Each structure stands twice: as structure tokens, then as C-alpha cells.
Amino acid sequence: MSDLAELIGVTKVTVSRALNTPELVSSETLERVRAAVQQTGYTPDLIAGSLASNRSRLIVALIPAIAGSVFQETVAALTAELAAAGYQLLLGQSGYDESREDALLDAIVGRRPAGIVLTGVVHSEHAKQKLKASGIPVVETWDITRAPLDMLVGFSHQKVGEAAARYLRERGARRPAIVTPGDHRAQVRAQAFVKAFDTARDIPVVSVESPANLGDGRRALRRLLDAHPDIDAVYCGADIMALGVLMEARHRGLSIPGQLKVIGYGDQNFAVDTDPPLTTIRIDGTRIGKLAASMLVEKIETGAGKQRKVDVGFTLVERETA
Hints:
- This protein is of the alpha/beta class and 322 residues long.
- The chain has 3 domains: 2-44, 434 Repressor (Amino-terminal Domain); 57-155 and 285-312, Rossmann fold (3-Layer(aba) Sandwich); 157-282, Response regulator (Rossmann fold).
- It has 12 helices and 12 strands.
- The strands form 3 sheets. A 6-stranded parallel beta sheet has the order 2-1-3-4-5-11, sandwiched between helices.
- α9 links the parallel β6 and β7.
- The chain is elongated, with a radius of gyration of 25 Å.
- InterPro entries: HTH_LacI, LacI/GalR-like_sensor, Lambda_DNA-bd_dom_sf, Peripla_BP_I.
- Residues 1-53 form the HTH lacI-type domain.
């Protein structure tokens, strides 16, 4: 910054204002500073800046998976909303293992971000204690609990499972099965489905490691039909598994939904274009991201927030597979 000031012939304070609060300097000075920055390739030291101001402009979000996941809408909304407020988003991929989340939080908290966004509400005691002691604003997302760590934007996975069970039963299913990822939230949905379907018959379940893929869905239906050829419906804990189920059903010559009804979870961008279009449960990931960003920024900048907990609910999207 001193080099820039000398090059332009102004004070360091003027350069700082041009970079951080451009509305406080004249347009002529601002253009000179920007030209010098481009000429020299200068990049502000954000760590030094946050130490000097005791304020970071960095928000960290931990999500289980990035590629091809239901969390993409949330990440996109978080990025846009935070950028509009002058904050940058850094992503960490935590997987579905508490120990991985613990390791990331150990690395993150010491760097003093302005805020943290977490996926889910199930964390180790180590993580809970570290986050509470840090004093960093935290928003938990994509789940619900009566006792959030700080702030929360989510929905009930139990109610998702119950809604899927009611819908399939209303559509005439009597011998359902479940294919699901093995992570905690997916298991809550599956267990709620079993309880809500309310049948004396055991509901077969095939559970696979998270994150699940298309092939998992095909193999799961193969296993189910080999052991339970009379099943007439499948609840899938992820849309990508539902796509695999549809492919395997077609391979076996089963009509959808005549012989086999299928319902997914997530309403990912391909769901409307499957053949037939997939009945599924939609989560408004964009709204989750926008709310998480606004709640964080409000608490960071005012020390308090108007909202502590928001249940965004979900929507059962009726298409042609069930």
C-alpha cells in the first residue's frame, strides 16, 4: 500500500479509502488508484486487514458434498447474497463423518472467520464446545432441532419421510420398499417412512454409503426385486438413486407407475426430465441459502438477529412416477 501511495503521489490513507470505501474519494483519485493496482498486480492482504480492523469478511460453509448434490442451490444463493453484502464464501467439504467436520472446524475457527454455515444439526461434543466458545456466529442448515447452536434454517426430515409414505399409500401402494443413503438425515427420513406407512408387513430397506449414486439405485432395486418380487413402490432417499431405480425398472420391463411407483427426494435438475418425470420432494435450497446469509450478516454487523430459527418446510412435487 505504501508503494501504491508513492507511485500515485497520495497518502496511504487515501489508497486505503479507495480500496475499501471508494465512495469517500473523488472519481479521479479512484481511477488513479485502480490503474496503479492493475499496473502493479497489487492484492490486499485480507488477513492483515482483518487483524487491523478486528473484522473478517470471510464466511465459511461446510457441506457434505459439492459435486452433483442437493446443496448446490444453497451454495449458489449463499455466494450471491454474501457477495452483495461485501463478504466472501469459502467452502469446505465435510463428507458425512463427524471426525472430518471436527478437523475442518479445528482449522477454521483459529482463522477467525466472520461466520460459519453448517449442514445438519448433528455434531460431536468437541465441535459444539469449540463453536460455542469461539463466539463466531453460526447458522445450521438443512435440518431442524429444538436447540440450535446459534441460528438455524431448515426443515424436518421426519416429516419428509411421513409425507412420502402418506402419498404412496394414497396412490394405492401396499408393498413398498426403501432405497436410501446411509447418512443420519436420510436414515431419519427412512425410519419415519416405515413408521408412517403403518403396515404389519416388514418394509424392506437397502441402505448404501453416502453420497449415493445412480448405480447404487440400480443395484438396490435389483436386490429388492430378487428378494421381494411383489413390491409395488419404492421410496428413494435421493433423486440420483431414484434415477437408477427407474433405469433398472425399465431394463426389467416394469411399467412406471403401473407396476412400480417411485418417489425421490431433492427435486434435482434432472428430475423433471426422467422418463417418466420423477415424483419427488423439493427442498427450497435457494431460500435456505438466502436466509442463512441474511441472518449471519445481520448478527455480524449488529450483534443480534431478529430471527433465530426458520423452518422452510418442503413441497411434494407430483409428476408421473407415482
